[in-house]
Design a protein that fits this description.
Strand order of the largest sheet: 6-5-4-3-2-1-13-12-11-10-9-8-7
Structural class: alpha+beta
Distance between the termini: 79 Å
Number of strands: 13
Number of helices: 6
Length: 250
């Protein structure tokens, strides 16, 4: 019995020691990690030089055996157009013209975005959001050193101006962002989405991730960015579709 108790005490002391070591671990400041990330993708001047961006790629859903074509167009400061072409279903388009956020879905029809959905698309539309961490996230703190997607990384906790919490993961080696974890709101409701950000490639001195694996509600989707161009934008894509304009007028 005495030996048994000694083992329990030893285990407890080991646990306390490990906790103490973890607590004493020096973690880089979140602001320093974010600054290193911005330099890794090209630097502030390179980011500001991008006035428009067009991405062509695909979205794969292995569980459903489905591959969808994808197009995303952005123009500074905050215009966005996205089109997903789904086999045997048609096109789902999403847009934000700086004021109005909208979705056209062959299953649900035309819809104006509001609430969290509108805020999400506004953030996504901001071409320079990477330069606005202090404005978007009053709280920034490094909370852990860990392995994420088989890579040593730092986990940064962010809280935005609405009090909404999210996490981003930065590679300890390259400084690049390799993952994120945040709630997203859609027609299906609010869900936690964990993203693995992979395979950065250089496009005119600007590093862009060309693969993103998103995990949500037990599903996994892979987004592949096959072609990235800058300055190749037809501004007419940001005009409100007739069905959306009708909703605005009403």
């Amino acid at each position: 019995m005495k030996l048994h108790k000694t083992k329990i005490v030893a285990v407890a002391l080991a646990g306390l020691l490990c906790t103490g070591l973890a607590g004493a671990q020096d973690l880089p400041a979140a602001k320093d990690l974010i600054s290193k990330y911005l330099q890794a993708i090209g630097g502030e001047d390179k980011i500001k030089a991008v006035e428009s961006m067009r991405v062509l790629g695909s979205m794969e859903n292995p569980a459903m055996g489905m591959t969808m074509e994808m197009e995303m167009v952005q123009k500074a400061p905050n215009q966005l157009y996205m089109k997903m072409t789904i086999p045997n279903m048609g096109e789902i388009t999403t847009g934000f013209n700086g004021e109005t956020g909208w979705v056209l879905n062959p299953m649900t029809g035309a819809m104006l975005l509001d609430g969290d959905q509108l805020k999400d698309v506004q953030k996504q539309a901001d071409l320079y959001s990477d330069l606005k961490y202090d404005e978007l996230y009053p709280t920034q703190e490094t909370v852990e050193s860990l392995t994420f997607a088989d890579e040593e990384a730092y986990k940064v906790r962010l809280v935005d101006t609405d009090g909404k919490e999210s996490f981003q993961y930065f590679s300890a080696k390259s400084g690049l962002m390799i993952g994120s974890e945040a709630e997203q709101t859609s027609e299906m409701g609010t869900m936690m989405v964990v993203s693995e950000i992979r395979e950065y490639k250089d496009f005119n001195g600007f590093k862009v991730p060309t693969k993103m694996v998103q995990k949500m509600m037990g599903m996994e989707m892979t987004m592949n960015m096959n072609e990235v161009t800058f300055g190749d934008v037809d501004e007419s894509v940001f005009e409100l579709p007739e069905a959306i304009q009708t909703l605005v007028n009403n």
